[in-house]
């Protein structure tokens, strides 16, 4: 038993010396190719075995012939191990280079295509993660392009919509200044109307900028949806009467919701005003609210005649307006974008779909 312990001790000392030497070499070569590192590992393994064997052989005073045989056997094992390590290293390094080249493509705006047949589970997992990241970047780039296009469109529309009332205000101001206005009271009322319209546009821009900057602060409180809708209907009733549109709100369940009352009133007001302005005289705008599987659903249905299917995905985009909404009293195309922003800030979602004779805007909020 004592001899066995001594043999183990001598073998361990020899192998440990080779291992420490190999660790130092690996540290010096840590920035080199994987082929070099694997070759060093294979060399350390064989050297450790050889060092342990030689140490034991020296302690046991083996004959030179026996020592030669042992050394030859270890040398053959070293050659095979080194060749295997080099082959494995070259194989992994080649696939790593393929992965590197494929990665460069989506960094430059392309799409990542994972090379087939990754040699290790780690590289295969890395390729899957890179493919997922590439898909996210493609989606992000597409959203960025759409957002930039909508911003350019918004700037153009805002410039157009502000230039027209400003020109009218200037003309009326000059007429009043020169004493050419026959009915100065009418001019002053028109000036006030145009100023209020522009003030509404600027207010919408400010609200949208807060939403997009993530600085919209909500003060949620438990509110009855019945009361919330009732107040909104009362607020737009004069506009509905002016346009000859009938408001229907008899399908409102008394469902509690945890929302910011002021912001949700703005959501309902924007939806109702948009619906009233797009519904022809003698038409109907209906509001409904009920519990659903996803929470609480609130819907506003108008009689606008429907939205083209190609335009449905763009309805909530910033600055979007249908071709029939290019003349006053159309706004800057921000109302529905504000609706979506406020609803999403409440962890809800806003959707639109065509129905018979018009379209239905629905807002889904988490149940209280």
Outline:
The protein is 63% helix and 12% strand. The protein has 368 residues and is an alpha+beta fold.
Task: Explain what the structure shows.
- There is one protein chain.
- The chain is α+β, with helices and mostly antiparallel strands and 368 residues long.
- The chain contains eight helices and seven strands; from the N terminus they run H-H-H-H-H-E-H-E-E-H-E-E-H-E-E.
- It has helices at residues 2-28, 34-60, 64-107, 121-178, 184-212, 225-243, 261-278, 335-345; strands at 221-224, 246-252, 256-259, 284-292, 295-301, 349-355, 358-365.
- The strands form two sheets. Strands 2-4-5-7-6 form a five-stranded mixed sheet. It has a two-stranded antiparallel ribbon with strand order 1-3.
- A hairpin with a 2-residue loop joins strand 4 and strand 5.
- Helix 2 (34-60) runs antiparallel to helix 3, helix 3 runs parallel beside helix 4 (121-178) and helix 5 packs parallel to helix 8.
- 23% of the residues are buried.
Radius of gyration, in angstroms, nearest whole number = 38 Å
Q: Name the helicity range.
A: 55-70%
| Largest sheet strand order | 2-4-5-7-6
What is the first-to-last residue Cα distance? 76 Å
Q: What structural class do you assign from the helix and strand content?
A: alpha+beta
Largest sheet properties: 5 strands, mixed
**What is the typical, i.e. mean, pLDDT?**
77
Percent strand equals: 5-15%
Compute the number of helices: 8
Q: How would you describe the shape?
A: elongated
Order of SSEs, N→C? HHHHHEHEEHEEHEE
The counted number of beta strands is 7
């Amino acid at each position: 038993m004592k001899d066995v312990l001594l043999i183990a001790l001598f073998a361990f000392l020899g192998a440990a010396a080779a291992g420490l030497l190999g660790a130092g070499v690996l540290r010096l070569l840590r920035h080199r190719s994987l082929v070099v590192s694997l070759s060093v590992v294979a060399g350390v393994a064989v050297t450790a075995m050889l060092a342990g064997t030689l140490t034991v052989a020296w302690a046991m005073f083996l004959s030179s012939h026996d020592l030669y045989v042992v050394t030859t056997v270890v040398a053959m094992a070293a050659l095979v191990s080194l060749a295997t390590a080099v082959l494995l290293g070259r194989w992994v390094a080649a696939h790593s280079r393929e992965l590197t080249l494929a990665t460069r493509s989506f960094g430059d705006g392309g799409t990542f295509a994972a090379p087939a047949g990754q040699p290790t589970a780690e590289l295969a997992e890395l390729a899957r993660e890179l493919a997922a990241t590439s898909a996210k970047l493609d989606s992000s780039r597409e959203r960025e392009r759409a957002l930039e296009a909508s911003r350019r469109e918004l700037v153009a529309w805002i410039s157009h919509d502000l230039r027209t009332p400003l020109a009218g205000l200037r003309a009326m101001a000059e007429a009043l200044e020169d004493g050419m206005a026959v009915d100065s009271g009418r001019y002053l009322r028109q000036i006030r109307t145009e100023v209020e319209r522009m003030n509404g546009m600027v207010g919408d821009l400010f609200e949208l900028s807060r939403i997009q900057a993530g600085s919209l602060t909500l003060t949620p409180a438990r509110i009855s949806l019945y009361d919330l809708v009732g107040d909104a209907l009362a607020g737009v009733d004069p506009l509905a009467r002016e346009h000859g549109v009938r408001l229907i709100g008899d399908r409102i369940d008394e469902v509690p919701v945890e929302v910011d009352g002021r912001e949700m009133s703005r959501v309902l007001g924007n939806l109702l005003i948009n619906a009233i302005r797009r519904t022809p005289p003698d038409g109907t705008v209906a509001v409904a609210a009920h519990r659903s599987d996803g929470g609480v659903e609130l819907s506003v249905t108008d009689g606008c005649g429907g939205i083209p299917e190609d335009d449905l995905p763009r309805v909530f985009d910033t600055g979007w307006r249908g071709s029939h909404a290019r003349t006053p009293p159309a706004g800057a195309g921000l109302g529905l974008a504000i609706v979506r922003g406020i609803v999403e800030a409440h962890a809800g979602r806003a959707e639109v779909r065509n129905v018979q004779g018009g379209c239905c805007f629905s807002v889904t909020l988490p149940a209280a």
